[in-house]
Amino acid sequence: MDLADKISKQVLTTKIEALIKWSRKHSLWPMPFGTACCAIELMAVLASRYDLARFGAEAIRFSPRQSDLMIVAGRVCIKMMPVLQRIYLQMPEPKWVIAMGACASSGGVFDTYSVIQGIDNFMPVDVYIPGCPPRPEAIIESVLLIQEQIARERQEI
Fold it and tell me: What is the CB neighbour count within 10 angstroms for residue 33?
């Protein structure tokens, strides 16, 4: 194999990798896991005023096997954590997680024995959204941060 063949294969691989990143970045399929008031703000983001569809994340799926982005919105109790972990494991790779609001990020005002003090103790979290509940603009910004992470990732082809 001469140098020209090697260069042409590298260019083709780079372009395919860029295409895969672009398609993943602009076709996120979120799965909401809403347990409290943060879920109401998540619904507001999907409505026409904020329109999350502009950023390629409109196809809300309630099946983990069809989702690649989990948005945990609200407090998670100890009895609910195994369910959340099972849902996370059922999602196909690559997958991303957003902890939405103070409760999902750190337990919020519910500093009790029955509420998980941050879901990052049990699963990896890619983006944290502060607030109680966070504004819709913050949710949009978190989706944009996930898209930036996808653009920076190294793909194995």
Answer: 25
Edge-first strand order for the sheet with 96-100 is 30-34, 69-73, 96-100, 127-129
Residue 155 burial (CB count, 10 A): 13
Kindly report whether the peptide bond that precedes residue 82 is cis, defined as omega within 30 degrees of 0. no
Separation CA 42–CA 37 (nearest Å): 9
pLDDT in tens, the chain (157 residues): 566 666 555 555 567 777 777 877 777 888 888 888 888 888 888 888 888 878 777 778 788 888 889 999 988 999 999 999 999 999 998 899 999 999 898 888 888 888 999 899 999 999 999 988 899 899 999 999 998 888 887 755 5
In one-letter notation, the amino acid at residue 80 is: M
- The whole-angstrom separation of Cα 143 and Cα 148 is 9
Whole-prediction pTM: 0.82
Cis omega (within 30 of 0) for bond into 92: no
Inter-axis angle of helices 136-152 and 3-25, nearest 10: 170
